[in-house]
Write a structure and sequence with these properties.
The protein has 138 residues and is α+β, with helices and mostly antiparallel strands. It has 3 helices and 7 strands; from the N terminus they run ααββαβββββ. The termini are close together.
Length: 138
């Protein structure tokens, strides 16, 4: 099992019985069926998006006024800082590129396989930004 940011907290909350179980809980966890990687704020989606599935996730998707989180896994294609913030991106220029705005590169380098998770803002058909965002190695 891959360890995603927040998985330990989710496991603790579930163990304490603070979330529902069964079909009702699953339907709450997947408010965006057929769109891998999308979740409610601070929630973990049932499936993580990838560079291969991000097109399906965002095709025709118009976020509501409420925050929507995106979780995506892929190889880092950009690691840049302006000395205050770090900008990490996954997926090649030929597809939909997803950039994470965060406070540290956590020692990650271009080519590392990572998971980015954060508040989704769709820029255009080829670019999405996650801000705030957490990044971890996959």
């Amino acid at each position: 099992m891959v360890d995603y940011p927040g998985r330990a907290v989710i496991a603790l909350v579930a163990a304490l019985g603070l979330v529902g179980s069964g079909d009702a809980a699953r339907s709450q966890d997947t408010p965006y069926p057929g769109r891998p990687g999308l979740a409610r704020p601070e929630a973990t989606p049932s499936d993580i998006a990838t560079c291969d599935t991000i097109g399906k996730t965002l095709d025709g998707f118009t976020p509501s006024r409420d925050r929507v989180d995106l979780w995506i896994s892929g190889p880092l294609t950009l690691v840049h800082t302006d000395t205050v913030l770090w900008y990490l991106a996954v997926c090649p220029d030929t597809g939909i590129r997803v950039m994470c705005v965060t406070y540290s590169d956590n020692g990650m380098k271009i080519g590392d396989h990572v998971v980015l998770a954060g508040a989704l803002e769709i820029q255009d058909r080829k670019h999405a930004v996650l801000d705030p965002c957490l990044a971890s190695r996959d």
